[in-house]
């Protein structure tokens, strides 16, 4: 029974999403009460992410044996992130300008209540890129693994630990063997937790539909359709071209990580699939040293879905208020979004906070327009999270290929 459940996990996740949606639509109060299922599942996954990332990165760096190589992987990753993120921003602007999802909603802007958006606006004012850089450094070694720790803090100490471990040679082998076993244990734990994915997915979907309701989507369905379409274009065209360059198919990669995609879709959290994604990337030929660096870093610096969300949403708000944005305005939005999407990483409600921070640089667009997006932000966050995890997976494949370390035999599953 367990074997069947594990091998067909994606099917059970889909069924749970459907059942959760039906419960939320027919019995909203019951759907809202199921929120702890989704929250509990995400908390279980987050509990294990820190040790898994630390072990994977430290062992990968120790095996690489060269800080120079780590630096080379780092700058290549950042270069790739910026290039692909720019494409995401441009595609969001193009779709927004062509389809104009906000046109004709002028009457809606007169009736919105912007009080609910004030909290996010205040949070956005406190988000600065410099603060994010300083947050890279934990107060203590252990503090990085606490509830207040950041993924990038774990990445930093793992790089330092792995480099020192590799430098001491033979004396470090017992520690490396211990980390190997430690890593296997935590991956075993994450495999066990992922068996609960249908419960978490069903509970999260029941809560979302129960709280916000299907009826609340109707005024904004066109914007949601435009956003999902833009994400699909980005995945199949931009990431598809990147995959073809490596000799793999994007559709094969999507099928490989289907379990993780459905989990992310229901929970709206890309972190819920971080550990399984890292494991699968190693199985298809990506070295641990590259996966351990690219994936955690990508969760802060390679947010393709968030970038699409930013440009498309700002154009939507401007169109709804009848504000004409010049080409200069739109390029300014792109430049600021490139920075704010990094600055708000790791913050609760990061997507919406980032939108508020980006919108603040265009004074001609009323900040109250955030309230237009707030009602459907939860539904858009699902596509954001899915696009982000696919983008990070492709990034790890590409950097492995660029380094000449993508195993040609193992990657046959993606051809």
Protein architecture, described:
With 415 residues, the chain is mostly helical. The chain has one domain (2-64, 77-403): Proton glutamate symport protein (Orthogonal Bundle), CATH 1.10.3860.10. Helix content is 74%, strand content 0%. The protein contains 21 helices and no strands. The protein has helices at residues 2-7, 9-26, 28-33, 35-64, 67-99, 106-109, 118-125, 129-134, 151-167, 173-194, 197-212, 221-246, 250-256, 258-267, 274-283, 288-301, 304-320, 327-343, 350-359, 370-374, 377-402. Helix 2 runs parallel beside helix 14 and helix 18 packs antiparallel against helix 19 (350-359). It is globular and about 70 Å long.
**What class would the helix/strand composition place it in?**
mainly alpha
What is the helix fraction of residues, given as a range?
A: over 70%
Q: Count the domains.
A: 1
Largest sheet: none
Mean pLDDT: 80
What's the CATH C level? Mainly Alpha
- In the CATH hierarchy, the architecture is Orthogonal Bundle
Overall geometry comes to: globular
CATH topology (level 3) name: Proton glutamate symport protein
| Total count of strands | 0
The value of Rg in angstroms is 21 Å
Low-confidence stretches: 344-348
| Beta-strand content | under 5%
